[in-house]
Amino acid sequence: MTSQILFALTLGIASFCLLALIVMPMMERSRKMTKRALDIMVIARPDQQALSRRQQLEGRLLRLLREVRTRFGMGGSIKSANRLAAAGYRAAAAPDIFFAAQFLTPLACAFGASFITDNTLLWVMICAGVGYLAPGIWLTEKTRRRKDRIRRSLPDTIDLLVICVDAGLGLDQALLRVSQEIAVGHPDMYNELTRVHLEQRAGRPRLETWQNLTERVKLTELTAFASMLTQSDRFGTPIAKSLSTFAEDLRLKRRQQVEEIAAKTKVKILFPLVFCIFPCLFIVLLGPAVLEISSGLQTISK
After folding, report:
1. How far apart are CA 126 and CA 109, in angstroms?
2. pTM, whole model, 2 decimals?
3. Taking the CA of residue 6 as centre, how many other CA atoms within 13 Å lie in the half-sphere pointing to its CB?
4. Distance between CA atoms of 95 and 87, rounded to whole angstroms?
5. Where do the Type II secretion system protein GspF domain residues begin and end (predicted)?
């Protein structure tokens, strides 16, 4: 009787251990998956993210700059925010960083000019003024280059819109598809189209979103494109035909601009030709003759 009890107890313990060996890895796996899911949820929440020391330092500096701007009454204006947005800087910290550049660049230039020994005060004032104007000039140049990139990408974008609309997609779906296709080749146009799509999803009318795009970029071709969309929507013109006509006109305009630039080169090349090439030709052609004439005159004089 005792041996039977011991055998049953031993069998129960062995079965429990075997069952534990089978179940424990499964429980451990589910625990790891749960921990991984919780980590992903924490990372996805900005208020739960573990910031690095660099991010903490950047946040403190940005808060300090914001407080300085507030103390001096230099709050971010809509005009400066529009300028930064036109250059492609739409982050919340962009006005603070630009303010820091406008504040620190003159100081750095003045500090560098203080090492000049002659007319130190004059050079400090000149370098401080140049340092104050430098961020604005740099921002203007960045805006101009971005406009040029958007202008060059516009014909390809409209051609893709024509293809998508001809395939049966609506204008909004075609806009989303085109923005995905040009994300690598034309990132600036991709950002603008993505913003237009997000504004439409937020509930703004289509024409209003395109008008906002023209106000942000301030490009003649985009203004004409928004006007074309407005007329097509108002008068019921087929959008595919309107897009095709607009793309042809845009390419014709670009071809005419290239021909105009090529025609201007004939006049522009005169200046390097007269001031750089002709003197060299005169030296090569007339130099030996002048040397021989001078040597002959010296022989006659002797």
Report:
1. 9
2. 0.64
3. 3
4. 12
5. 158-286
| Residue pair 224/246 in contact by the 8 Å Cβ criterion | yes
Residue-level pLDDT, tens digit, the chain, 302 residues: 555 664 565 556 656 655 655 655 555 455 555 555 555 544 444 444 455 666 666 666 667 666 666 666 555 566 777 788 788 787 777 777 787 787 788 888 888 888 887 788 888 888 888 888 888 888 889 888 988 888 888 888 888 888 888 888 887 888 888 888 888 888 888 888 888 888 888 888 888 888 888 888 888 888 888 888 778 777 777 777 788 888 888 888 888 888 888 888 888 888 777 778 777 877 888 888 878 888 877 777 76
Q: What are the angstrom distances between the C-alpha of 245 and each of 159, 162, 193, 241, 258?
A: 10, 10, 21, 6, 20
- All domains in the chain, ordered by first residue: 57-143 (no CATH), 146-263 (1.20.81)
For the chain, give percent helix, strand, coil, nearest 5.
85, 0, 15
Its sign, for the CA torsion 189, 146, 232, 239, is: negative
Supply the DSSP string of 84-145, one letter for each residue: HHHTT--STTHHHHHHHHHHHHHHHHHHHHTT--TTHHHHHHHHHHHHHHHHHHHHHHHHHH
Dihedral through CA 241, CA 243, CA 245, CA 250, nearest 10? -170
Distance CA 152, CA 150 (A): 5
Cα dihedral 64, 69, 73, 74, rounded to 10, equals: -170
Are 192 and 217 in contact, with CB atoms under 8 Å apart?
yes
